[in-house]
Fold this sequence. Notes:
The structure holds two protein chains of two kinds. In chain A, about 80% of the residues lie in helices and about 0% in strands. By secondary structure, chain A is mainly alpha-helical. Chain B is mainly alpha-helical. Chain B has two domains: about 30-205, Alpha Horseshoe (Serine Threonine Protein Phosphatase 5, Tetratricopeptide repeat); about 215-275, no CATH class. Chain B starts with a helix and ends in a 10-residue tail after the last strand. Classes of the chains: A mainly alpha, B mainly alpha. At the A-B interface, α3 and α11 of A face α3 of B.
Amino acid sequence: MESTAAxxxxxTRTESRQGKLWRIAAIARNAFREAVRDRVxxxxxxxxxxxxxxxxxxxxxxxxxxxxVIVDLxxxxxxxxxxxxxxxxxxxxxxxxxxxxxIYAVFSKPVGRGEFLVxxxxxxxxxxxxxxxxxxxxxSLALLYVSRGWDSLIPTIWPAVLLIxxxxxxxxxxxxxxxxxxxxxxxxxxxxxVFIIGHFSADLKSLAASMxxxxxxxxxxxxxxxxxxxxxxxxxxxxxHGRAPSLEFVFAxxxxxxxxIAVILAVATLVFSRRNFK
Amino acid sequence: MIGMACAALLVHxxxxxxxxEDPNAIDESLYxxxxxxxxxxxxxxxxxxxxxxxxxxxxxGRKIINAQDLPxxxxxxxxxKLLAPLLDTATxxxxxxxxxxxxxxxxxxxxxxxxxxxxxxxxxxxxxxxWRLYHHLGYIYWQQRDYRxxxxxxxxxxxxxxxxxxxEAMKAKMAADxxxxxxxxxxxxxxxxxxxxxxxxxxxxxxxxQLDSLDQRDSLRKLFAAYQARTxxxxxxxxxxxxVLRALRIAVDASxxxxxxxxxxxxxxxxxxEVELNPASEIPxx
Lengths: 278, 286
């Protein structure tokens, strides 16, 4: 009897887990469709125009460095466009649902607040994934064009693209966290500040080391470890010189992103679950 | 459409009304130095380095536009005071970017040799395996007639894996005979072979032609001396020594004047036993 109860309980748990995943996937799919409907992917057209123009004209301006410029320009535009999407779409993910009052319809169904947030997050991550992959293909095509054939930089840009994607995932989670308790404008501002500070993390560390008082040293050291270290994901310049990161480095940064995102989403869920929509 | 056309016309009109640009504006100091630019570049440092690199090319290009035939290693009269800061910023933003170091090593010595040495040394520190930078630093020292330092640079570069064997040979040549034309020829030949920059190639090519021309002029002076020994006077026109020139298979034009390696006729200083480059010649005079 006891073993039957345990089996029933385990089956129920498995079904519940499957149901949870199914609900998250449905929300993510929906968030992706919404981003496509909102013409978020139209930025790809602008990106392609930028790269095409650069491929044709940069040769005359760069003194024979068109390959390097194409990689720098392409990957920097990928990061910049991605940051804008992560911030401006990310901060509106929850807010729009509250504003349109569609959130009531969502929560009238058996959907947890955490599931809702994670689903929304994954939907935007999927949008960003499509974005960076298409842009990566665009940069590769531009390299093929300027080199009039195979270019040795093509394989080295993809690890950099992966690191950019991880940075965007981190930023999206940050935008979602801020949007779970504040207005879109403030969330966008705060996320942008995190992006800036995240790239200054090395300065925070050296600032901490140069501080005279122990408390200030602790404060800046704490900030260094607390804020996302986005400088770890900057691999655009080495990629333009044909250098790829080691597998160990990619694995460590992926693990860091995973842990950081899990923490941010957990905090966002905690804040969001206490929020009153009335 | 009509609105945009009106806007375009207005822009054109405003352009004509605007006071002329200050010609010194191009030389205005940079607002941010390399370190600051790197700090605020937020991961876009590679792109910013490209921007500064292209800006330095444009800066030189704009100044050189009226001096087409000036070799890029003789730009001292163009007042390129911003070039060193521009190249320094580009290399601080992207320390692995080799081209600005090479450009600094070739172009800057005529403007500010200390900056040229500093930037090239900075490049070596950031890229200790780039043997070409040792070659360029050796070239700067060679230009300064510091053959010992030049030899040391070639020696250090020769030890790097992948460095060509001629680096070791250059080390010995610099130490033994740094001031000779043979060494100069070796340097410019290697520069011509190794560089991917068309302007540097062109400069090296012109310097090689100049060396050929110097050899030719020495030969012509020997001919003048022989002629003077025979006749007791210097030739007053090329016609007087044309048969000898033809016998020695030296290319001459219709007037009998010998041609320099660029194809321009040499100018004879009548009665002075001296030969000069034609002002129209593409061979650099200095």
